[in-house]
Specification:
By secondary structure, the protein is an alpha/beta fold. The chain folds into two domains: 117 residues, Aspartate Aminotransferase, domain 1 (Alpha-Beta Complex); 199 residues, 3-Layer(aba) Sandwich (Aspartate Aminotransferase, domain 2), CATH 3.40.640. Helices cover 36% and strands 16% of the residues. It is built from eleven helices and 13 strands. A seven-stranded mixed beta sheet has the order 2-8-7-6-5-3-4, sandwiched between helices. The protein is globular, with a radius of gyration of 21 Å. The structure holds pyridoxal-5'-phosphate.
Length: 348
């Protein structure tokens, strides 16, 4: 059976399921919220979950400081990224984003036969919003994806620049803030939602909350957009277990803030150590570092030593993204990299 035309050539998102001693490839956090596990969840598993996730949205509203009516929950923020494309972009209409950025944007675009156009980054991987505005004027996009801090580079876009873009486009601007908790938060666009009816912001509990396994994300936007997205989403899309764990987690936001501070300190130390080892490091506002290495197949060499990081293809062949791990993981990482450097010198 042949799939529809847009799927025939689709290269799906690659995940790595192999066992590794240390995994620093997917920007997850450790399980710091529920180290003892979770028991006695008060849910009725025989019944469908709350279709509106009311308790969860109430807690998210308190955490973020917005009205729960301006929130829609998702099965990971991935589901909400797809929901935006599905709801707002017709076949052959344009989606604009930057390159490099989160790899799911072009994948969802392709699935729905939209036209994906990527604005190139500057040489240092900073993002040029003036160029994005030029592209927006030229290509008249229906939807613009902006990832800040950007995955995979860690670049944080100054807020004024996104506001400037919003003032010059009628496109729906979706700001993906999956990693915003790892910055000081001042660059978040959430407080602009009331100002701009064409702005939505996406967040996830997969990163700073350490809950990637429960697949929980959310989108903030004006009520009109939330109502529209609610019409399109599948019924009961977010299961009761994830809703309940999300509520419990949002009662522990102090621990999340502590975790973020710890990761920021570790990121700073790892950055220093890797730059002392000769890598080029790009300033990152996420829980990961984006680096360039002169060592060929650096990721494969680390894999052989039990550590998984994220490598790239094409123009980004010598670049790598490394999640900031625990203190011990980072120490082992640095030690194994030192070994690789020595082996590399001895082989030449
Ligand atoms: C920028 C960005 N957006 C969205 C996601 C998806 O997150 P999730 O579906 O786990 O909420 C990720 C995951 O890596 C990401 O890096």
């Amino acid at each position: 059976m042949n799939p529809k035309e847009s799927i025939a050539l689709l290269k799906g998102y690659k995940t790595n399921e192999a066992q590794f001693e240390i995994r620093l490839d997917a920007n997850e956090s450790k399980n710091f919220l529920f180290p003892e596990g979770i028991s006695n969840l008060d849910i009725e598993i025989n019944l469908y979950p709350d279709n509106q996730a009311t308790a969860l949205r109430t807690e998210i509203g308190k955490y973020i400081g917005v009205n729960p009516e301006m929130i829609i929950e998702g099965n990971g923020s991935s589901e909400l990224l797809e929901l935006l494309v599905k709801t707002y972009v017709d076949k052959n209409e344009v989606i604009l984003s930057f390159e490099p950025s989160f790899s799911m944007y072009p994948i969802y675009s392709q699935i729905y036969s939209t036209s994906y156009i990527a604005v190139p980054s500057n040489k240092d991987f900073s993002l040029n919003l003036d160029l994005m505005i030029e592209y927006a004027k030229k290509y008249n996009p229906k939807l613009i994806f902006i990832c800040t801090p950007n995955n995979p580079t860690g670049y944080l876009i100054p807020k004024e620049e996104i506001i400037k873009l919003l003032n010059q486009t009628n496109a729906l601007v979706a700001v993906d803030e999956a990693y915003m908790e790892f910055t000081n938060g001042l660059s978040s666009m959430i407080d602009q939602i009331q100002e701009y009816p064409n702005l939505v912001v996406l967040r996830t509990m997969s990163k700073a909350f350490g809950l990637a396994g429960i697949r929980l994300g959310y989108l903030l936007g004006n009520q009109n957009i939330i109502e529209t997205l609610n019409k399109v989403k599948s019924p009961y899309h977010l299961n009761s277990l994830s809703q309940s764990v999300g509520v419990l987690a949002l009662k522990k936001v102090d621990l999340v803030k502590e975790n973020v501070l710890t990761i920021q300190k570790r990121r700073q130390l790892l950055e220093l150590e890797l730059s002392n080892l000769g890598f080029t490091i790009y300033p990152s506002s996420g829980n990961f570092l984006f680096i360039q290495s002169a060592i060929q197949n650096f990721d494969k060499l680390l894999m052989n030593k039990g550590i998984l990081i994220r490598g790239f293809l094409g123009d980004l062949k010598s670049y790598y993204r490394i999640t900031v791990g625990t203190k011990e993981e980072n120490e082992i990482l640095v030690k194994r990299i030192e070994e690789i450097i020595h082996e590399n010198i001895n082989n030449h």
